[in-house]
Write a structure and sequence with these properties.
The chain is an alpha+beta fold. The protein has 24 helices and eleven strands. Helix 7 crosses helix 9, helix 19 crosses helix 20 and helix 21 packs parallel to helix 24. The chain is globular and about 65 Å long.
């Protein structure tokens, strides 16, 4: 067993880790992991087990680092429930590579191909990963697969063969060997430890952890105003959506999801029905992005609270996150529809487009009511007569232009891009200005530093706080520099800040 990285740059100071561990502080969940030499396991800071002796403890910045050092995941606190541990990584190439790994990049390609996508050689990428993450790219990928498999074995009744497929293994033999090496037991032994909850055939339920605070009702309210009927439904306490099944989508078959809060725990409950095992990792990733479950509020608040206006906003809504769209192209179309009109008006246009060009879906019998459509593809909208649903000619032309660019590969919403590069490619398209490009980056691609400086509400909130009607776009951009790299969170907080609160700050 190798020596752990107690002084890794991504780790908080040792005394902070010890205090967080003693308090079982959920705000540090996933920020670090505790490796115990005497047992050979690693735990979350919130592990309910009695604390180990300090001389037996070392700390790791993430589960991949602990796994690479030879430790196994704890069966009591279940590290697979932790939020993403990479929020503290600042190296741009590593953050972009991590985003690509989360999207499955290493499932079908080699490290050298991944390195090329972020502008490095394979050797450089390995070196910066070990320095910034404490593990190699392959170790990060392998640990993700292992922990997903462990969660599926613990919380669902999926057959082991389906668990292997969902975790990215095409061979049950390789899956068994990897699981035994990583967890110290066979997959079946995990299943025997705890029986999964009884659910209808084809349905499973997973727990998704986050670092508190998270204002789930406020997120639902934000999404509800923009929800597209037929594709998604937002209730008082839940989010539901139709999920086209990529493996059998030719016949229109689809699955569904339902997301609810778990009372008394910093977790959401995700129900998945009718979805092929191979699609489960992507569904989980998208839900986590939708509700921004991997955010680290401590780091975000520490930066934004330095600004008196944002400190007031944080006090009002400490659990506000940046809700991401389900899919980049869908969000991009929605952003174009919202140019210079109200949220309600844009939602009306989106509903008409889905009713006219959306793909009808064949839903399972137990699917939530009212879900029967998939958003139209770029190939469908690139030639669509969008003016027929009342869309102005200029905006219809912009949507066709964006659709063609996506269909032809000239514009992508995949992870691993630099914010500046994406914005440059987007604004090169007729009809896409900086506001639209930044909004797509913020909510379609989960880029935390995206900032639509041309937004009227932002300019008004910041202007009133300085005793003027509104700031210019240049002044708004300048004001935002102190909020980097969390400017997207500042946007959401300013949007939710009452106008009189900004005025009182000026006073």
């Amino acid at each position: 067993m190798t020596t752990a990285h107690d002084h890794h740059p991504a780790l908080p100071p040792r005394e902070v880790c010890l205090r967080a561990m003693a308090a079982k502080d959920h705000r540090f969940d996933g920020v670090f992991f505790i490796a115990v030499r005497s047992t050979g396991i690693y735990c979350r800071p919130v592990c309910p087990a009695p604390p180990p002796r300090r001389e037996n403890i070392t700390f790791h910045p993430n589960a991949a680092s602990a796994t690479a050092a030879g430790y196994r995941p704890c069966l009591r606190c279940r590290p697979e429930l932790s939020p993403d541990a990479f929020a503290q990584v600042r190296e741009d190439s590593v953050r972009r590579a991590l985003a690509l790994i989360a999207e499955g990049a290493l499932q079908d390609e080699r490290v050298d191909a991944l390195a090329a996508r972020v502008g490095l050689s394979a050797r450089q990428l390995q070196r910066v990963f070990v320095a910034q993450v404490g593990a190699t790219p392959h170790a990060v990928h392998a640990t993700r697969r292992l922990l997903l498999a462990k969660q599926l074995l613990t919380e669902t009744a999926l057959p082991v063969t389906d668990v292997a497929l969902a975790s990215g293994y095409n061979s049950i033999r390789r899956f068994n060997a990897a699981f035994r090496e990583g967890c110290g037991m066979a997959p079946g032994a995990i299943r025997r430890q705890k029986s999964a909850e009884a659910l209808p055939l084809g349905t499973l339920r997973l727990r998704l952890g986050y670092r508190p605070p998270l204002d789930f009702p406020l997120l639902l309210a934000f999404i509800a105003k923009r929800a597209i009927p037929g594709i998604e439904h937002v209730g008082a306490d839940r989010y539901e959506r139709a999920i086209p099944n990529p493996s059998t989508g030719a016949d229109g078959s689809a699955g569904w999801i339902r997301v609810r809060a778990i009372e008394g725990k910093p977790e959401l409950s995700l129900e998945i029905g009718g979805v092929a095992p191979q699609a489960i990792p992507d569904v989980v990733r998208r839900v986590r992005r939708l509700f921004d479950l991997d955010a680290d509020p401590r780091a975000i608040h520490d930066t934004l609270a330095q600004d008196p206006l944002l400190a007031r906003a944080l006090d009002l809504h400490p659990g506000l996150r940046v809700p991401c769209g389900w899919e980049g192209f869908e969000l991009a179309v929605r952003a174009v529809l919202g140019q210079q009109i109200s949220v309600a008006g844009a939602t009306t246009y989106a509903r008409r487009i889905v009713e006219r060009w959306g793909t009808p879906l064949r839903m399972p019998a137990d699917a939530p009511a009212g879900l029967d459509r998939a958003f139209p593809s770029p190939d469908t909208l690139r030639d669509a007569a969008l003016e027929d649903v009342g869309l102005p000619k200029a905006r219809a032309a912009t949507i066709r232009t964006v659709s063609a660019a996506v269909a032809e590969g000239r514009l992508s919403f995949a992870g691993g891009q630099r914010l500046e590069d994406f914005v440059e490619r987007a604004v090169a398209l007729p009809g896409i200005g900086p506001w639209t490009a930044q909004y797509i980056a913020m909510r379609g691609m989960a880029m935390p530093d995206a900032f639509p400086a041309g937004d009227l509400v932002l300019q008004q909130r910041l202007g009133v706080a300085q005793g003027v009607t509104r700031l210019t776009e240049r002044a708004t951009e300048a004001r935002s520099q102190a909020w980097r790299p969390w400017r997207a969170y500042a946007v959401l907080h300013l949007w939710h800040l009452p106008a009189d609160a900004a005025a009182s700050d000026a006073a």
